[in-house]
């Protein structure tokens, strides 16, 4: 028989594995899509808020309001004590400090991601106040030299009212934007929580799919290298060891042995007792062989009723002895053991040596098997 017989090769059924592969690809694509949507949502809704420090801006506005109140108190003191040097000093300080606060508020408003249309009018009013305070500094110099403070007091009162109104509007604007920021962040938090939950579900699904894929892969490997009926390795399984055993034999100088076995008149058994009976005999036959071979030997079913044993570190005497034990073991099987009202014998071909190519060793064993059949069956021949 030839080394390769396609009739006994079981094709690998990869449809299920491919299906799981598509599921994994879809899962990863879904995960990437969800992450991309989350990033887009974040950029769209939160960019203008994440760059804003509304707490700091509120502090600037509140501090400026307090100075506006103190400026009003200083104006009242000037009305009561027009020539008090301490009042002049306080007013000079406020006329210098309040414009500094206006510059600070202007910078903070522009540094935060607020819409310019929301604070443009307030900022313009503050800039106008800043210019008028520059004029008041000149007026204060005249009052110190003895001029009347009435015009100064009137203009100061107008400025203080403008500051109070503007700061109040800015405080309301900042609090409103801060509230919006909190709402957006809460929504983002919920979105991220849902996203994390979905990612966890997806990861669990992927892990389950990977586990199933591993099981399917193992099953495919089993189907591709093992015979389902006898549970022995098949021709593919044999060939996976053959070349490495040949190389090992070449390196070590130890002989490699091969026994080919064929059940005699097996077609007659199938035709007479039916294929279920033939399958039963094959199972019992395989069990009998497994009881006799070593753990390091490779036992395989390589055809319908053809089996083989590949034996590392085995010379011709050892191979022949094992072949005879196997032949005797099979011929001694009773009808009760076989489960069929018949007896079974087999023919065996033995070949040993240091072949560098497995098919050469196989060809010699196959030739010996043919000789055993020609010479009457139920015998061992050496090739």
From TrEMBL:
GO molecular function: diguanylate cyclase activity
Cofactor(s) listed: Mg(2+)
Enzyme class of the recorded protein, top EC level: transferase
Keyword annotations from UniProtKB, A to Z: Membrane, Transmembrane, Transmembrane helix
Alphabetized InterPro entries for the sequence: Diguanylate_Cyclase, GGDEF_dom, Nucleotide_cyclase, Rev_trsase/Diguanyl_cyclase
Bilayer-crossing regions: 20-42, 192-211
Reaction(s) the record says it catalyses: 2 GTP = 3',3'-c-di-GMP + 2 diphosphate
Enzyme Commission number, as recorded: 2.7.7.65
Record domain GGDEF: where: 254-383
Record SMART domains: GGDEF
NCBIfam families assigned: GGDEF
Name of the protein: diguanylate cyclase
Species annotation: Vreelandella andesensis
Upper taxonomic lineage: Bacteria, Pseudomonadati, Pseudomonadota, Gammaproteobacteria, Oceanospirillales
